[in-house]
Predict the 3D structure of the following.
Amino acid sequence: MNHLELTKKVEWKDLKSLSIKEMLIENNISLPWLLISLFLAFKGYYLVALPFSGFYFLTALRQVHNGFHNSLGTGKFLTWLSMYLNSISMIASIHAVKFNHIRHHKFCLSDEDYEGKSASMKWYGAIFYGPKHLFLIHWMTFKLATRKYKRNMFLELISISAFIFIAFYFKINFLIYHISIM
C-alpha cells in the first residue's frame, strides 16, 4: 500500500471543529506556564522559573503552530491576536515564523525551505545555527513575503522593541529575565 492509499484511509480528526472545552484549552495552553514563570522570576527564583519558561515556550510553539493552520477554533481576528501576543512574549515575529512554516510545507527540506535548514545538520550544528535561524526567518519574510506578512512582522517587531525598551528602561527584573530566556 503506498502513502496515497494510506492517507485516504486515515480519518483526520485533528482537522475537525473543536468543542468549547478544546478551544479553551488550545487558546490558553501556554498561559499557566507563562504566569508561573513570571511569578517565580518576580519573586527572584530565576533557576526555579527556568523549566516553567521552557514549558511556556514549548506550549506557545504548539499554540502558534495551531494558529498557523487556523485550528485554534477561533475566528481570524482572535487567531491573529493570539499570534501577535505570542510574538511579544516569545520575542520573535510569529507571522515571520508562520510565513517560513507555510513555505516549509511547500518546499520541504529543499533549498527554499529556511525552516528546515537545520534538519541535515549535526545536533551541535543545529544548536549553534539557532540564533542565525532567528534572524534568517525575519530576513526571508522581509525579502519574500506579501505586504500583509511584512506589515504584521513589522508591527510585531515594533511591539517587541517597545516591550524590551520598557522592561530595561524601568528595570523590571522579572521581565528582563523573561526577555533573556526567550
